Automatic annotation (TrEMBL):
<keyword id="KW-0378">Hydrolase</keyword>
<dbReference type="InterPro" id="IPR036514">
    <property type="entry name" value="SGNH_hydro_sf"/>
</dbReference>
<dbReference type="GO" id="GO:0016787">
    <property type="term" value="F:hydrolase activity"/>
</dbReference>
<protein>
    <submittedName>
        <fullName>SGNH/GDSL hydrolase family protein</fullName>
    </submittedName>
</protein>
Length: 372
């Protein structure tokens, strides 16, 4: 066979291969519920709203996901229809100003996500029902910001790259770490020694991962704002009330949580596009804390219709926390109100504050629901 004929065959084979891959890419969903070609073109018009993305764990995954959270007992059980997570509250009360992305079925299994990444398709895992820019997933540890299989920050930045102009002045909120450092065993180690090596290693690894995530975002989107939410103290969770009932134990745990938060504060101090939000301070402002002997002495949040919300567990909206350990609808609604105010102050935004009257109106269906 002549060299010319061999060269022609090689060129033809390469052309057919490339054409085949183009057809596969055009026909195959990108894991974001639409053809890859449409996303790559970046054809979505700007809405004028502030782009808002989320990285994190179950504290920021929408409660009305029916893929990952298919068990009907989760996220409010029989109250689930009126039990909302904070992003769902934000979308309903300020969806005209904040763009969390289209609600839909996003993501794939982890193996498909790897395949998508290889072929230049915007990857995403796990599969869930959520807002397009909410990458938070139940069970996520800090290493899932950058590591496999979720690669939350990596996949988000790939998506942001499709429409870089839209993310100038946008926001990425990072709220993660409770699965790393909030478990009973970790808190118990800290209660005995606030400088215990194992908890501190976990805390420092989280802070490092969050720092690397900020660097990745700002390397390609330097004008995107980043909000870092501090760690909560699970000693304030009702299931732990019988644990660590001494002043020293609680002080030691708080000292460990301070290491986490101070690490985030340092990251925020290094960049004017980064802000730290103190979640423990916000919690204490509403429900208080343990007494000087480490015993539960929490306040009751009282809202104007006569609703009393205690720091307790249960799916009824009078409880701060749901039976499955996640924030209840009152917690999430008040937190969304607090978040809007905090973001306005931090980044000079003009989001309309969520009023107390809006909070009451939003919560009314939850308290009016009748259950057996």
């Amino acid at each position: 066979m002549s060299r010319l004929r061999i060269a022609l065959l090689v060129m033809l084979g390469g052309l057919l291969t490339a054409t085949g891959l183009m057809l596969v890419g055009a026909a195959m969903p990108d894991g974001l519920g639409r053809p890859f070609a449409a996303v790559a073109a970046g054809t979505e018009p700007s809405s004028g709203r502030i782009r808002f993305a989320v990285l994190g764990d179950s504290d920021s995954q929408s409660y009305h996901d029916t893929q990952m959270l298919s068990n009907p007992s989760l996220r409010g059980g029989t109250w689930r229809a009126t039990t909302w997570q904070w992003t769902e509250v934000l979308a309903r009360l300020r969806g005209d100003q904040v763009d969390l992305g289209e609600w839909g079925a996003w993501g794939t299994g982890k193996y498909r996500a790897r395949f998508d990444k290889v072929f230049g398709i915007v990857a995403r895992t796990p599969a869930k029902d959520d807002y397009r820019y909410d990458f938070a997933a139940s069970g996520a540890w800090c290493n899932q910001l950058l590591g496999s299989p979720q690669r939350q920050a990596v996949n988000l930045v790939d998506l942001m790259d499709k429409e870089p102009q839209a993310w100038k002045g946008g926001i990425v909120l990072i709220r993660i770490g409770i699965n790393d450092v909030g478990g009973h065993g970790v808190l118990d180690e800290l209660s005995r020694d606030p400088k215990a090596s194992h908890p501190l290693a976990l805390i420092n690894a989280c802070v490092d991962a969050i720092g690397e995530t900020i660097a990745l975002i700002h390397k390609r989107h330097p004008q995107t704002n980043v909000a870092l939410v501090g760690i909560l103290n699970n000693a304030d969770w009702a299931v732990e009330f019988d644990s660590w009932q001494s002043a020293s134990a609680i002080a030691n745990i708080d000292a460990g949580m301070d290491v986490f938060d101070n690490g985030l504060r340092k990251l925020a101090a290094e960049n004017r596009h980064v802000v730290f939000l103190d979640d423990r301070a916000w919690f204490r402002s509403l429900w208080g804390e343990r007494d000087e002997q480490g015993r539960p002495l929490y306040k009751t949040v009282r809202l104007s219709p006569g609703w009393a919300i205690t720091n307790s567990s249960g799916d009824d909206p009078h409880n701060s926390v749901l039976s499955d350990g996640h924030a209840g609808v009152v917690w999430n609604t008040l937190w969304a109100q607090h978040l809007v105010t905090s973001l306005n102050a931090a980044f000079g935004l003009n989001l309309t504050p969520i009023t107390d009257a809006e909070v009451i109106g939003f919560l009314q269906p939850s308290f009016a629901a009748k259950h057996q």
